Amino acid sequence: MPRVLALETHDVRFPTSLTLACSDAMNPAPDYAAAYAVLRTDGPDELAGHGFAFTIGRFNDVQVAAIAALAPAIVGADVDELVADLGGFSRRLVGDSQLRWLGPETGIAHMAVGAIVNACWDLKARRAGLPLWRLLCDLTPAELVALVDFRYLEDAITPAEALDLLERGAEGKAARILELTAGGYPAYSTAPGWLGYTDDHLAGLLRQVIGEGFGQVKLKVGGSVQDDVRRLALAREICGPDYLIAIDANQVWGTGEAIRWIRQLAEFNPAWMEEPTFPDDILAMAQIRRAVAPVPIAAGEHVANRVVFKQLLQAGALDVMQIDATRVAGVNENVANLLLAAKAGIRVCPHAGGVGLCEAVQHLSFFDYACVSGTMDDRVIEWIDHLHEHFVSPAVVRDGRYIAPTAAGNSMEMRADSIREYSYPDGPAWAGNAVRTLGNQP
Amino acid sequence: MPRVLALETHDVRFPTSLTLACSDAMNPAPDYAAAYAVLRTDGPDELAGHGFAFTIGRFNDVQVAAIAALAPAIVGADVDELVADLGGFSRRLVGDSQLRWLGPETGIAHMAVGAIVNACWDLKARRAGLPLWRLLCDLTPAELVALVDFRYLEDAITPAEALDLLERGAEGKAARILELTAGGYPAYSTAPGWLGYTDDHLAGLLRQVIGEGFGQVKLKVGGSVQDDVRRLALAREICGPDYLIAIDANQVWGTGEAIRWIRQLAEFNPAWMEEPTFPDDILAMAQIRRAVAPVPIAAGEHVANRVVFKQLLQAGALDVMQIDATRVAGVNENVANLLLAAKAGIRVCPHAGGVGLCEAVQHLSFFDYACVSGTMDDRVIEWIDHLHEHFVSPAVVRDGRYIAPTAAGNSMEMRADSIREYSYPDGPAWAGNAVRTLGNQP
């Protein structure tokens, strides 16, 4: 009867702000970071569970403290009981009344719950000897429904409707699993489009990713209209008129400014317009979408919970749901998000990149195709070829497609030597670099 | 040229869960707590600034860590420069791109900014020798506009509209300040209505607060309809048909359940229905308000920022804005909230109670009457006679009205002996009590 012996945490940061990779209109100089958690058990060595919250530098230590503060909820738990009811476990954590005061269900406290819940799923998948997506595929529709917290969702989807969706989604599942295993899932590349890049660098990278087989790219916008127009014209020239080019403003605009700005970029026929404004501003997003139609609106990397996604769908504010593996309360809440999208009939194109987000979120899209939506039409997972070397089972993209993960677990395990090297502020990688504080920004 | 020498923090918790005071349908056993911050300067002794975030127990340590992590943004600052531009200072903190990732503008990170911004206002008011509300009254309309972060607000209120509102609000200001000084501001009492109280206890407390001169009380609801109906019938019998009785469900319902439940309580003519559902569910709140009209809908203690308040007003979801002194990014964001309410023509009835929330928020209502709304009609500040003895300048309510604060500062300074006594987990007050963790709840 194995037990959870310890919750180990690490503050791991990569000095990505030293280059201008990852620069956008809102985030000029992020240091990609993981508030990293390991559940140690007294089973055999491999029975550990790994999870993390992704941040962009400062306050990663606070995120780590929040994860560590959840130790009393998990240390000492009977592993068999724990993994047998991850729906109940995650509802108890999310619903803890004192913890909830710090949200509810948003920000640092909620992301801490997500890291722990994801680590539990890693543990469960390793015990089953399956990659997370295959483990999820083996659950029955009723077992999947039991994972979801329907509190505040029932005006959009009921447990009975979810069960019905999943029963229909299970038809043909075996064939789709084979198809995923053989052919993977489409990816798109954000690599060429960072705001800090010169036009020449942008052009070179665009040619490169097209050559690598990607069917879509994404460019950051929102610094200046003139720059955006010039860069998009260049991209259209290189990619051709029908190639998919999404654009992303990372929340820098107010409503009126967004509408004026997007109208000036609409001639370049964007595949979608991502994060035009504040992520919780549901009414603004809906107004922007109506005003710039038919430009599709995408958002999600900063959507804190299923209730905000629910409203974005109810308000007609969203064409593309961009789930994120570590923003919400882990796998369970993302199953809720996938069900909301399926019910509304909108596509899910996950946010990834960062540190380990490709690794983590791919499992959810593979599961979605096999068991929920049953379609890959117009669906792509974000891909940035960056920092994968720090993971034990890195995500792999070939010919513009994610290859189905096969290693047991959720792919979030970071290499022990990377954790040592990039531990903040004492790891060797930080020895030659100025420590990043609010008063000391590059 | 005084400088900020240090940011001192304390984890202060009161074992309120040992009684059933403070129990409601969502929060059965809170331990009221303050993540407390002091800005020490090298001016004379009294030149310190005090602020805190209010939490209800667990994770107060994480909230303290978040406040402490902001030290590099404030320690070393020139105090004259700092207090001369608190608008710029708060916009820089709120807008820090790496910090913003953990929100944006919500949860632990945002409340940490609020504690620091409030401490800066305390420092500024002490230097001026004025209570915070009087200091705010001395600012010109243009200076007040400069405090506000209009990002994401301009579809509801522009700087020019705010200036116009404040210029009109300033007319007759001197007379209203005299009126406040002489007669104070109306309070309402939540003391009788906690869910854990017996009917006899409820009845006794209702008679007591009516005798003390309060014109309104609030009862917690949402445990069971039968109990709510019985308690409200009892309250109506004691208070009479015209006495103001507000009710508060603390977010426990989904949309449909809220509508069904409120309709069963509507016969008791509630003064308002507070927090019927999830605080970020703007569309649900609007739907509930339409369905249960004319019952007024109130919310705000869990509204994370001005953008959510903006939407609640735009969606027609709110009759009563319940600002909270420590939920948002401090005084500056609450000035924005007061302006939004004034523009929309709805009343502001602040959330208080907790630890020191009465002390902190009273200044904002006094300022609102003097300089913004110019009215006290149907407006009341929450009052719970609890834990005030721990503050150096406690809020005072007499004959059902808050007495105008006269001590210099924002009234958030806690007594040094209280901080020592209730420091968690090592203060003497916790020596005889079980330490509260997720695994060890009373």
Structural overview:
Two copies of one chain form a homodimer. The longest helix of chain A has 22 residues, at 107-128. The radius of gyration of chain A is 21 Å and the shape is globular. In chain A, strands 4, 5, 6, 7, 8, 9, 10, 11, 12 and 13 form a ten-stranded mixed sheet that branches. A three-stranded antiparallel sheet of chain A has the order 1-2-3. Chain A is α/β, with parallel strands linked by helices and 442 residues long. In chain A, helix 9 (173-183) packs antiparallel against helix 16 (357-372), helix 10 (199-211) runs parallel beside helix 11 (225-239) and helix 14 runs parallel beside helix 15. Chain A has 18 helices and 13 strands. The mean pLDDT of chain A is 95. Chain A has helices spanning 60-68, 79-84, 86-95, 97-100, 107-128, 132-138, 141-145, 159-169, 173-183, 199-211, 225-239, 255-265, 282-292, 306-314, 330-344, 357-372, 416-422, 428-431, and strands at 4-13, 33-41, 48-55, 185-193, 216-220, 244-248, 273-274, 297-299, 320-321, 347-348, 381-383, 397-398, 401-402. Chain A has two domains: 4-130 and 418-431, Enolase-like, domain 1 (2-Layer Sandwich); 169-414, TIM Barrel.
Assign the structural class of chain A, choosing from mainly alpha, mainly beta, alpha/beta, alpha+beta, or little secondary structure.
alpha/beta
| Quaternary structure classification | homodimer
Distance separating the two termini of chain A:
50 Å
Range of strand content of chain A: 5-15%
Indicate the mean pLDDT of chain A: 95
Note the total helix count of chain A: 18
> Radius of gyration of chain A over alpha carbons?
21 Å
CATH superfamily of the largest domain in chain A: Enolase-like C-terminal domain
Overall geometry of chain A: globular
> Which consecutive residue ranges of chain A, at least 5 long each, have pLDDT under 50?
none
Compute the number of structural domains of chain A: 2
In helices, the fraction of residues of chain A equals: 40-55%
